[in-house]
Amino acid sequence: MGESFTVALFYNLLLLLQYQTLLQMASSQTSHDLIEGLRTSCNNLVRRMMRLPFGILDDISRVIGREATGRNSSYPEPLHQLEEFEFNIPEEWYFLNVFERQYGESHPFFYASRFMEALKIAKNESKFVFVYLHSPDHPLTPSFCHETLCSELAVQFLDENFVSWGAVASRGEGLEMAMALRVTSFPFCAVVAPATGKSIAVLQKVEGPVSPEALVEILQRTLEEQGSAFRLSITAEEEVIRENRRLREEQDKAYLAALQKDKEKEELLSATERRRKVNDENLSRKPAQKHTLEQMKEVPKETPRPKEASEEAQKKENITLRKMQPHTRLLIRFPNGTKKEQKFTSTDTIRSIYKYIDSLEIPGVGSYQLISNFPRKVYGHEQLDMTLREAGLHPNAALFLELIS
């Protein structure tokens, strides 16, 4: 039963009391009779109220208490107005509104934005994105939010090391992310990193309830294992951008130089042609015996042969194409803790990596194989002829050297 109905009932009872009092006052002739009439009316009111259901009595007590503390307090908005208010909340703020109404404002700093905007912020700050998909009706959600997600340990660690983004899993971007991340159970958290274009790389998933200490340990391990590779990928991507810009500038410069060279060549040919015509005219005026001698003196220098010019142009083109070949940057970690960073082309094979490692002649390295951790994949004898692009190692990757006993 609504609170407004309860209040109306309460005031109707008061009116009934006043009506009974007036009747008794009209019929009473003495003050004693008036007092007795008021006492009887109050007793009747109390008996009627005591027969009301407990829920209505509780509502009446709250109303009386609110009226006693001040008349400026307003009644709660009707339910349909609250639903309409929630419906009109922007999608970016819906999760925070739902979360803070139930768990308060002491929580990790969730960015109220679209996911791609949070991903862009993380990329600019060289951080990972911590994704939390909220399922309000799941029975394990309250304990996880109160005890783990909103704990001081988790809040401090997430705010310092991640860009946090949350959404309700049953609507909008939250539903899209739940499908993309293939969520199977709640509570659900994930660590993602920006990849090429608009794609993302899922580095870690946490499904089901965990303690604050366990959550922080998982996140810390993810940072240690993937942080260096992530920073390396950002650096490699920036280097690729700089390299592409430099190549474009070199190509533009070469193009302008070729245009200038063609222009000079045309001017040279025109000048040669003019000199030839002048020589021909001069020779035509001289005796026939002097024609040969004068012609030999006036013959212009020969221009480069077409074949030689073609070979030179082909050589320059090959050099330019090699500069344009995309590079792959690899971080190789050895069992003794040594790290080596090496640049390859995307068309190099896995065999090239093995040759590079063998050339280092690192002590204690006998038989070994190369592996990647996320996802774990072995690059052994069967993959030697795969290119780095085919092996999924382009544009950058981290490999571990595992000894074979």
Automatic annotation (TrEMBL):
<dbReference type="InterPro" id="IPR006577">
    <property type="entry name" value="UAS"/>
</dbReference>
<feature type="region of interest" description="Disordered">
    <location>
        <begin position="267"/>
        <end position="316"/>
    </location>
</feature>
<dbReference type="InterPro" id="IPR049483">
    <property type="entry name" value="FAF1_2-like_UAS"/>
</dbReference>
<dbReference type="InterPro" id="IPR029071">
    <property type="entry name" value="Ubiquitin-like_domsf"/>
</dbReference>
<dbReference type="InterPro" id="IPR001012">
    <property type="entry name" value="UBX_dom"/>
</dbReference>
<feature type="compositionally biased region" description="Basic and acidic residues">
    <location>
        <begin position="291"/>
        <end position="316"/>
    </location>
</feature>
<keyword id="KW-0732">Signal</keyword>
<dbReference type="InterPro" id="IPR036249">
    <property type="entry name" value="Thioredoxin-like_sf"/>
</dbReference>
<feature type="signal peptide">
    <location>
        <begin position="1"/>
        <end position="28"/>
    </location>
</feature>
<dbReference type="GO" id="GO:0036503">
    <property type="term" value="P:ERAD pathway"/>
</dbReference>
<protein>
    <recommendedName>
        <fullName>UBX domain-containing protein</fullName>
    </recommendedName>
</protein>
<dbReference type="Pfam" id="PF21021">
    <property type="entry name" value="FAF1"/>
</dbReference>
<dbReference type="GO" id="GO:0043130">
    <property type="term" value="F:ubiquitin binding"/>
</dbReference>
<dbReference type="GO" id="GO:0005783">
    <property type="term" value="C:endoplasmic reticulum"/>
</dbReference>
<dbReference type="InterPro" id="IPR050730">
    <property type="entry name" value="UBX_domain-protein"/>
</dbReference>
<feature type="domain" description="UBX">
    <location>
        <begin position="323"/>
        <end position="401"/>
    </location>
</feature>
<dbReference type="Pfam" id="PF00789">
    <property type="entry name" value="UBX"/>
</dbReference>
